[in-house]
């Protein structure tokens, strides 16, 4: 049976994001060790120790946060496209 997921307090989520940003090996594709899974796993293990939870929980939470950011960016992009279309329809009509 799967272990229940950790209940994350807002402060913990903010701290996890700060720790994630402080470790570019996890997110910066230009980082020399970005593709080195062993080093990335060591960093993830360190995060898990800091948050007193399994590595799988850290990986799950980071995955969920990345998905949430992607969804929000997609919504923003769609809104901008809708506003642009509305401006085109409501724009001035030029007649010769």
UniProtKB/TrEMBL annotation:
Taxonomy, superkingdom: Eukaryota
InterPro entries: MADF-dom (IPR006578)
Domain named MADF: residues: 15-96
Pfam family, one: MADF_DNA_bdg
Stretches of the chain forming a coiled coil according to its record: none
SMART domains, alphabetized: MADF
Ranges for region Disordered: 75-96
Stated name of the protein: MADF domain-containing protein
Organism: Apolygus lucorum
